[in-house]
Amino acid sequence: MKTNKIKEFFATSWAIDNKTSIYVLTIFITFLGISSYRSIPKEQFPEIVIPTILVNTVYPGTSPEDMENLVTRPIEKQLKGINGVKKITSNSLQDFSSIAIEFNTDVEVPEAKQRVKDAVDKSKKDLPNNLLQDPTVADIDFSEIPIVFIQISGEYDLDELKAYAEIAQDKIESLPEITRVDIVGALEREIQINVDLYKAQAASVTLTDIERAVASENMTISAGNITNNGMKRSIRVQGQFDNMDVIRNIIIHSSSGAIVYLKDVAEVKDTYKEQESFSRLNGKNVITLNVVKKSGQNLLDASDKIKSILDNELINKEFPADVTITKSGEQSRYTRNTLEELNNTIIFGFILVTIVLMFFMGFTNAFFVALAVPLSMFVAFMAMPAMGFSMNMIVMFGFIFALGIVVDDAIVVIENIHRTHQHEPNIILAAKRAAGEVFLPILSGTLTTLAPFFPLAFWPGIVGEFMFYIPVTLILTLFASLFVAYIINPVFAISFMKHEFDAPDKQKMKKKIAIEMIIVIMLALISYAYYAVSKSEAAFGIGNFMVFVAALILFFHTILNPYIKWWQEKGWPFLMGLYERQLRFVLIGRNPLYLLLIVIGLFFVTIVLVGIRSPKVLFFPENMPNSINVMVKMPIGTDQRVTDSVTRIVEGRVLALLGENNPVVESVITNVALGAGDDMDFARNLSSEKGKVTVNFVEYKYRNGVNTNDYLDQIRDEVKGIPGVEISAQKNRAGPPTGKPINIEITGENLGNLIHDAAAFHNYLDSLQIPGIEELKSDFQDNKPEIAINIDRERANQYGLSTGQIAGELRTSVLGKEISKYKVDEDEYPIQLRYSEATRENINNLINLKITYRDMNSGLLRQIPLSAVASIDYSDTYGGIKRQDLKRIITISSDVLTGYTANEIVPQIEKLAADFPVSEGVLIKLTGEQVDQAETSSFLGMAMMIALGLIFFILITQFNSVSKTIIILSEVIFSIIGVLLGIVIFNMSISIIMTGLGIVALGGIVVRNGILIVEFIDTLKERGMKTRAAIIQAGLTRITPVILTATATILGLVPLAIGFNLNFETMFTQLNPQIHIGGDNVMFWGPLAWSIIFGLSFATFLTLVLVPALYLMVYEFKIRLQRRKSNKLARISR
Length: 1134
Known about the structure:
With 1134 residues, the chain is of the alpha+beta class.
């Protein structure tokens, strides 16, 4: 018989010998952890940094095609040589070029911006010499999305409402968390000088004369200082305009020398610019404030401060009582709700885990183990600020994911201490020996659990940036759990663990219960007394919580405790006996081989079942929309008033569909021109051809089971049938930003061929009416209306005129020119000069417009009609020419209707595209979401291989045996059976990201229990036990920690998987638990949670049955090989 070697882990032994220091450290960790949690910024999603730089160039009078050739191409030529560039896209428009350079996510934004600046500087030598200004280089902040929309309304005109909006704007912009506040739907004051063409010509007054006169009169100039009676006084000439009559009575010296008053040739009006944007709330005109938060700031803090400003400073104080302020689209509401649900999921999962542990280990031991959850999270909270993490739903899921796993180490340590203490009365020795005995398998198990998450931390691309927080959070928390299990748990164990077999003293027990009840009731009474004085909701909640604790104490001691005792003395021993009989049967004869063949057969049967069932394959889980955007797009060049009229029709249909006082609908917001782009459109410029109607729904828990996807389908049907308009309805994005589900890129250098083939393919797909496609839309427009002024350069040169002079005169005449500022207190308003509307809107008047200029030969002013040097053409031009990676491109895209997936539709389009005839050099390719999906699938496959490699290396290092390593790794492969069977049986969809992530993560989780079994078999064999007996004893000894760790992990995820939500805070503070099933979190995380639950449930069977069987099978195979080798050597020796 071999002697048992006593093992100790020095860190645990040191902690036990210095337990006072550990108690202080525990208090310190708790305090700092809670403090860190309170200070961490709260967000719904992590802020994703996509290094993207914009290069914008203005070149007036240039067509899109010329803009592409003269400006876009030369800049792109230099940009293509920059390192780290992922994609270059450009859009050449009339007078304007915009180039977006997207870098790989490992490139810092300042570095990317500098590289682009250097490239643009190199390109300047190839750009036109007469550019008004150099190309501008700026970065895009993808976090600059409005966090709330504030609507201001009342029985006031828009000018008065704007004044109130500006007060609110100034106050909100003063908050350190806020970047800016944009005002939408307001009128902009301006002073208009509308010149009558005929009166001006009769008086020989030109626009230049008026500009010169106004600019020279509207000024205040310092004339220096003089000394008067020993006092220095400054001299200031005051000429600033202070009313309209002063402007009207300005004297203009005409080119003929006559004196003319401005009022004689022009109308001077104190009015407003033509309304550039429109905003409505539930069909009523409002002024909207779009509030944008600074990157990295706390969303919830910003929201609370904005609410404080509105409630405490503006409503019924600075604002009259009849001014109404409404908030909509409030991100903080969804964020707060999401974080509350995830917090409550953690608490509920923690309670379930603790209850299960109580049945196996008793209340005291369960409490030690449960300590690992908050303490591990506190350690992670402390590290998060240093890593720049915010508290968002991705990080919170990382903690939920870790909930059942972090107790695994503590379960094994405490269970082993508890078991060792039954044979070793000295609790200190028992704790040291027990911790040392399981240190190596626990360390190995933790490393193998973390192995799949290390490659996930290097997930490339936008999806990787988004999901990065899960593996890092888990790695932090699991390492923290290892620290808690070996440093803190043993210290608590030696202080409070009792012999389970000691008969309890009933008198002491009654006294203990009485003391506990008195303390709890006293705390409750104190809380209620404080509530009676202060009306503090928190005090009321604490009082109710204490009453709940008192009820739990009574419930545990009077009702639950007998059941726990029965389970520990009869129920669990009976199941262990049943397991022992089954295990002995499995180990008989060829049964291990038959079991292996059955599992392999089940693996292939499962794959066949998946093929027959054909579950839907999604890139990302489908969410139930919190908001729906109805996008309206008119032809480029459409006046914003026309766009508004069409948007009103769409808005009316949506409002009629939803009905009045719909309890599911929070608000319907309409924006036209400004704020009407896609949520991921970061350009803040006006788009007169765009409108957007946004339907915001109430939180999921208040929808009474209504599926908002039904509204999406109904809205899509309702807004159809308006000719000449592109209308699409799309729900809010959930998850990382990705391309459109259907995104067809058609590239080619010959623009004519490209336009023809793109239109032909577009029409071809439309004719097929492929089910599931919402509406295919092209981003190319070749019918933008224009009036081309063709300059006869030869004739113009004869008159001494240049193209620039003619264009400048026309621009001032039609568009207008700001010639000065009109000041009122601290505000300045533009003074705008142009011809009257009758002249501007009449092309005949414009073509006969006289161009006034100074003849360089005679020095005299001359006037030449525009018709003498130019002709006009009515034509259509391109809305813009887009390029991607230096190739011309036209994109056709669409969303997918509810009930369909892109994976069902895209293969059909790919087949059609392959057979579709196109011109030489034209290529059709499907991209968008499919590219992200392919990259993600490829990465997850590679991550799985890397994870298996890391696990293999860790196991080889521990066991120094290939066969034992393969035995344990077989769990990983066969655990996929559980995942796929669960999906087939419960008719679930497969999410590429979430299901894939669950399978990868599962690989590390299932291995640790296999390690416990194999390692203990080896330990028992070292102690002299026969192999078969060692296998059976190891199974019986480790079944408790195996079942507990698996059950803890599963129960930690169950609340999230089924979407059970219970608000513990309101349950005590308002006596309203707000119980509901479902929500955004279960849709988002459900596939991942179920993957782990299904896989781990099946893997537990593998651990307890297949692993022992494989161990025996391999052992017997080695024995037979040794016998053959011995027999062979014996025959040779004869």
